[in-house]
Structures are given as C-alpha cells and as structure tokens.
Amino acid sequence: MRLLSLCKGKIHHAIITEANVDYIGSITIDESLLDASGIIPFERVHIWNLTNGSRLETYAMVGERDSGIICLNGAAAHHASVGDKIIIAAFCWTDEPIEPKLVLVDENNRFVSYLPVDQYGALTEI
Predict the structure, then answer these.
(1) Distance between CA 91 and CA 105 in Å, rounded?
(2) Catalytic: which of 26, 32, 54, 81?
(3) Residue 26 a catalytic site member
(4) For residue 126, is pLDDT > 60?
(5) What is the pLDDT of residues 4-36, one digit of tens each?
(6) Is 29 helix (H, G, I), strand (E, B) or coil?
(7) In terms of residue numbers, what domain contains 69?
(8) CB atoms near residue 81 (< 10 Å)
(9) Do the beta carbons of residue 80 and residue 95 sit within 8 Å?
(10) Which end of the chain has fewer surrounding CB within 10 Å, N or C?
(11) 113 is catalytic
C-alpha cells in the first residue's frame, strides 16, 4: 500500500482578525469554517500568509461559531498581523482518492462558496 498526503480541506483568503502572542499556541478558527472545510480541532494545519509570504504549521482550535475569528496564537502570532490574508490547509495520508472541501470566504471570514476543482485537481474558477 502506498500512502499519499492529499489536501482534505482548505480555507482560502481568510483574514487574520487577531494575533495573540500570550496565548498558548495554535490558530483559533470560526467553528462554522471548521465545519465547512472538514478541519477538526487539534488537527495539524498549514498557514500560508499571502500578505508577507510566511509559512508555518500549527494546530486548529475551535473559535466562536459565526464570529469570523481567525486568530494566530503563541509564537505563530509573530508571523502575521491583523488584516493579513492567509490560506489555511489540512492534509491527510490516504491510499484512496478524496474530495477536498475547499472553502472560499469573504472579507469578514464568512463562507462564500466551495471552490470547484476539475478531475486533475485544478481550480476551475475563483
């Protein structure tokens, strides 16, 4: 059996609402966005900062539902400022095809739509 690391969920163009160096680790994400993307609490996530190019890994924590919160905590808070645009992605190891949940959000971190992909994994529109 050969396992591949495949993208299972992504929150595209989220906006950092808080950066809290004094909180112990992680990224706090609106529970509605976790549900929509299939990312679960304590799952490892990649954070790609579109504003400054920073890339890091941390784990997801549940934020208040429908609050729009996207808060980098602890050391990760040094990698972003409030207002930065980021991508949050989660991967899984599998030997089967998966259908990722790719979520597009608006400027208030509210769900807009799922991003469609073709059979080759390419986005068909944004």
Answers:
(1) 19
(2) 26
(3) yes
(4) no
(5) 999 999 999 999 999 999 998 799 999 999 999
(6) strand
(7) 4-105
(8) 13
(9) no
(10) N
(11) no
**CB-based contact 42:87 (threshold 8 Å):** no
Q: Which amino acid is at 96?
A: E
Which residue type occupies 62? V
Specify the number of domains making up the chain: 1
Which residue from 70, 74, 54 is spatially nearest to 62, judged by alpha carbons? Answer: 70
Q: Is 35 helix (H, G, I), strand (E, B) or coil?
A: helix
Beta-bridge partner residues of 71: 18, 28
Which tokens belong to 70?
A: 């996207």
Residue 35 lies in a domain: yes
Q: Spot the catalytic one: 59, 113, 114, 120.
A: 59
Does residue 114 belong to any structural domain of this protein? no
Average the pLDDT over 90-118 and give the result.
93
Q: Would residue 52 count as lying in a domain? A: yes
Rounded CA separation 5/45 (Å): 13
Residue-wise pLDDT for 30-53, tens only, equals 999 999 999 999 999 999 999 999
Is 117 a member of any domain?
A: no
CATH number reported for the structural domain that contains residue 68 in this entry: 2.40.40.20
Question: Helices marked H in the chain — which ranges?
Answer: 31-37
First to last CA, the chain: 35
